[in-house]
Structures are given as C-alpha cells and as structure tokens.
User: Which sequence fits this backbone?
C-alpha cells in the first residue's frame, strides 16, 4: 500500500515536471496570476486628488532629476526622438510609394484610428513633473497624453515590417531605439507606463490586422466572381 502510494506520487511529480518542460509559459503565467492577484487585493487604491502611482516614474526618477537640471540635454534628446519619429514616417511612405507594400501604412492607419478613439475616451492627467521641449513631436505636445503611446506603437510596426522583409539588423536597431525612446518618455513624464505597454501591444495587433486585411483583399482579388467582374466589367 505504501509503495503504491509512493509510486503514484512519483508518477504525478514526473508528469508535472514533463508538463513544466513542455509548457513552461502557461506555468509561468499561472504563477504570475497568483502573485498579481495577491497584489491586487493588498495594494491601496489611489485616492482622488493624488498623483497617479506609476512604477516607471519611480524607476526613472534619477534620470528625471538629471534632465530637469540639464534642459539643453533634454531638448537634444527631444530632437533625436523627433528625428526617430520622422524616420518612421519616411519609412512607411517609402514602403507604400516605392516598394508598393501597403501593410505598414494600413497598420499605422489602424493604430492612429484606435488611438484617437481611446485617447478621446480616456484622458489621463498631465503629470506635474512633465519636462516638455519645443523640439518634441507633436508640436507643443498636443497629443502626448492620449492613451496609448503612438511613438511606441509606430516603432513596433516599423520594426516588425523590417524583420518580415528580412532586414533583421535594422529591425533590431529600431527595437533598441524604441526602448531608449520609452525610457526617455518615462523620464520626462511624457507618457505613463500603461501608455507604453499598451502602445507596444497595439503596434503588434495593428500589424496583424493589416496582414489580415491584405489576406482578405487577396482572396477577393483571386475569387472567381472578381475575375468575372474584371473580365466583363459587370456583376452576373
């Protein structure tokens, strides 16, 4: 009886180890769920009138203090960030009009459309310690606080397109610059952490939506009915 119980326990442990090796991600996510559920019920809510609690702001507070005391450096970094955004815009236009590939442009249009709706629906307060610059884009920080971050989402779309077209090194560089951009946006209080996280997810999602759109367009183009329309110029 005791030996059978031991064998059963050992078999169960072996099965658990096999599952852990075969599916580590679900196990990790399950552990994370338990941890964050505990945090959810133990962390106090932010009361009205207080500044929002942001972990990214806390982690970059020393960078914020340094940039606040060096406004010239803050403006230089803003100019570099604006140049990075302009590069992304130029890349999307190049792929559309020169390479004749519309997926990045469609993804950008999806992204900014969703951002307009969400940004209008939820307008977060401007952080008191925001470090603005006349060299930021958009001008006068007109939409910096729309939820979510278009800077991050656009960078993700461009990086994914570069990797898809086998320009992996360029995609990695854009991804790295996106990380630096995110650090700057947090340090200058230009976006909340949630803006950046959702921006990255939105960029990924909009790229895939653009891919689905292309697939649907190709199916319509290749359908027999469409061929008949192209041949005869009329619907049958």
Assistant:
């Amino acid at each position: 009886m005791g030996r059978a119980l031991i064998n059963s326990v050992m078999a169960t442990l072996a099965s658990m180890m096999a599952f852990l090796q075969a599916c580590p991600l679900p196990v990790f996510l399950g552990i994370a769920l338990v941890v964050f559920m505990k945090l959810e019920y133990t962390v106090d809510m932010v009361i009205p009138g207080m500044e929002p609690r942001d972990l990214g702001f806390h982690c970059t507070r020393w960078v914020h203090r340094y940039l606040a005391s060096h406004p010239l450096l803050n403006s230089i970094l803003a100019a570099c960030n604006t140049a990075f955004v302009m590069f992304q815009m130029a890349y999307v236009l190049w792929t559309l009009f020169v390479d004749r590939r519309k997926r990045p442009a469609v993804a950008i249009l999806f992204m900014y459309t969703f951002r307009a709706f969400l940004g209008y629906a939820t307008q977060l307060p401007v952080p008191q310690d925001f470090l603005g610059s006349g060299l930021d884009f958009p001008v006068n920080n007109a939409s910096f606080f729309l939820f979510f971050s278009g800077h991050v989402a656009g960078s993700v779309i461009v990086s994914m397109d570069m990797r898809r077209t086998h320009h992996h090194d360029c995609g990695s560089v854009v991804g790295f610059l996106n990380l630096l951009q995110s650090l700057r946006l947090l340090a200058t209080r230009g976006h909340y952490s949630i803006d950046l996280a959702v921006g990255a997810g939105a960029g990924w999602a909009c790229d895939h939506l653009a891919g689905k759109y292309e697939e649907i367009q190709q199916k319509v183009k290749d359908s027999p009915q469409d061929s008949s329309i192209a041949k005869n110029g009329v619907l049958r």
